[in-house]
Amino acid sequence: MIRTTAALVLAAGLAFTAASPAQAFDVTQMSEAERAAFQAEIRSYLLENPQVVMEAAAAFEQQQVAAQAANDVDLVKANAADLFEDASSWVGGNPEGDITIVEFIDYRCGYCRKAHDEVAQLLKSDGDIKLIMKEFPILGEASTLSSRFAIATRLTAGDEAYKAVGDTLIKLKSDVNETVLRAVAESLQLDADAILLAMNSAEVNTIIAANHQLGQRLSISGTPTFIMQDQVMRGYMPLDAMQGIVAALRDERG
Q1: Same domain? 60 vs 121
Q2: Are residues 191 and 226 in the same domain?
Q3: What is the pTM (predicted TM-score) of this model?
Q4: Does the pLDDT value for residue 240 go beyond 70?
């Protein structure tokens, strides 16, 4: 609706300018008869040139996208330390890679699950990408339990265990509860008691709260969301799209 309105306003201005370019446009000074004539001129112009509405809508959308991208760059810059230097977040891929990707993930999110294998393929095919994971549970209690379990695993058993647990949780089809999580830990030969005990620790609470606050500052409302260098990509992206963005980022740097 906003786009359509903007397009009509632009089209109206174009129509009036085409009809009487030398006249000053002030709708508040128009009489009823003048206003009716103006409206008739707009209608006639749009009927004769319907493509103007689509052109105006496309131009407005491009302006909005450009404005959002510029704002995202500023947001990433303002939150760079929390995004790229947070010691509480798991780092995968090549820690010395020339491209850094931060992924905000919810294990119960269908699109996160769809993206999981494609992100893995990206890292496998490109050895110069650093991946930082941000636990961002937003889909209810099962999401929160899953993230708590993953974070607690990293705190008690280390990075390799975290990766193994994450790969399991992202494909888990059953409900999430203590019994299921204990079985996950035991299947990976991890200390289930230690992990379950750590799930409600102050440190886990702090990490999840910090990630949610960071997401709020970055205007992130859904998962997956990817921060690719200084760009914010909201939503699922197929492998070829991610590869294209990585290539473009490298080209920009020369």
Answers
A1: no
A2: yes
A3: 0.76
A4: yes
